[in-house]
Amino acid sequence: MKNGLPFTILLVDDDSDDREIIDEAFKEIGYDPQVKKFINGKALLHYLEIVEPSLYPSLIVLDNTLPGLDANDILTLLKQHPAYKTIPVVVYTTMLSSHKKEQLISKGAYACLQKGSTMTEVIRLAQELKHLAESKT
Question: DSSP labels for the chain?
Fold first, then answer.
C-alpha cells in the first residue's frame, strides 16, 4: 500500500449501483484495496474524525448529489477544517453544468469529473482517480 496508508482514496456515493460499478473498475485496475467507500457525507466526516491524521487519504471523491450533505456542503466543511483543508477533493457526477463546476472549483474542489456511462469510461475514471491520488502522496 502506498505510503503505508490503509486507504488512499475515500469515495462518497449514495447510489449502490454506482458504488458497485466503480468497485469493479478499481478491481479491474488492481486498486480496490486502496479505496474506502461511504454512502453519505456524515459517515465520511465521522471517519476523518476518528482516524489518525497520518492515515488521512491522498484524495476524497464526492458524488455531486448526495442526500443530507451534498458535495457542496461537504466540500465547504472540509475546506474550513484546519486538518482536512489540504486533502484534495474531486467531485464526480453524471452531469454538471459549467456554472456548478466553477462554483465547486472556487470552493476548493481540485477537479470535477464525469462518472462515465460505459464500463470503459468508468475504468478510465478509476485510472484518473488513482493517478490523482498517487500524485498527491
Answer: -GGG-S-SEEEE---HHHHHHHHHHHHHTT-GGGEEEESSHHHHHHHHHHS-GGG--SEEEEES--SSS-HHHHHHHHHHSTTTTTS-EEEEES---HHHHHHHHHTT-SEEEE--SSHHHHHHHHHHHHHHHHHT-
pTM to 2 decimal places = 0.91
Regions of the chain with pLDDT less than 50: 1-5
pLDDT value of residue 45: 96
Is residue 37 within 8 A of residue 17, CB to CB? The reply is no
Task: Say how far apart CA 12 and CA 92 lie, in whole Å.
Answer: 10
User: Given this model, what pLDDT does residue 3 score?
Assistant: 44
One-letter amino acid of 93: T
